[in-house]
């Protein structure tokens, strides 16, 4: 695999951290953004807020100075503010969309400048099975994650002729502190919906992302890759 400069937003914990570790293990030059906290050892951590374009530009300048132009961008940073529609405030909706969708827009726009110059780029947007299936109490989150599909496909049509691919990875239920804290009966109810019969791991997601960024996936763009144990059945 050709060594690349990789930037993972929100890479200090959870799925983002697993993705950063997988790229580093494959020999790539890896940086992560974090609002607070640091990434894994051996990975460059830059402080950034994906809702602030100036903050993103400053982070990219640090990465470019230390590791070179960003060739692989993984837009992973995201938040949730779950509440049923009739109780959801406009701020709840706007904050989630500004981070999950607006954040992807800002980082992709900034990364695309270097990718166009190089006539090479890999963009991977981290969505969610919820973006396809929907989920009560997550209208803001589901809307923001579903929108990433149209984003990737429009980006493919704009920049696909310049050696740039844009794809979406849609994780399902992934093992985390949050899922571990759920009551046993609730965990079993979730597991009953997953044909694979288990929660996924951060590594499951990371492997798909690393492959999409590889030379082997150069003819794949505008695709949605579910990593959900069959929960969404491709929807």
CATH superfamily: NAD(P)-binding Rossmann-like Domain
Largest sheet: 7 strands, parallel
Structural classification: alpha/beta
Count of spatially separate domains: 1
Average residue-wise pLDDT: 95
Uncertain segments: none
Separate helix tally: 9
**What is the name of the CATH topology?**
Rossmann fold
Shape: globular
Distance between the termini: 31 Å
* Level-1 CATH class name: Alpha Beta
- Cross-sheet strand order for the largest sheet: 3-2-1-4-5-6-7
The helical percent reads 40-55%
User: Measured on Cα atoms, how large is the radius of gyration?
Assistant: 17 Å
Do you know the CATH architecture?
3-Layer(aba) Sandwich
Order of helices and strands: EHEEHEHHEHHEHHHE
| Beta-strand proportion | 15-25%
Number of strand segments: 7
Description:
Keywords: Oxidoreductase. It comes from Amnibacterium setariae. Belongs to the short-chain dehydrogenases/reductases (SDR) family. One of its GO terms (molecular function) is oxidoreductase activity. It contains nine helices and seven strands. The protein is of the alpha/beta class. It has a single domain (5-225), classed as 3-Layer(aba) Sandwich (Rossmann fold), CATH 3.40.50.720. Strands 3-2-1-4-5-6-7 form a seven-stranded parallel sheet, with helices on both faces. Helix 1 packs across helix 9, helix 2 runs parallel beside helix 4 (102-118) and helix 3 (90-100) packs parallel to helix 6 (139-159). The longest helix has 21 residues, at 139-159. It starts with a strand and ends in an 8-residue tail after the last strand.
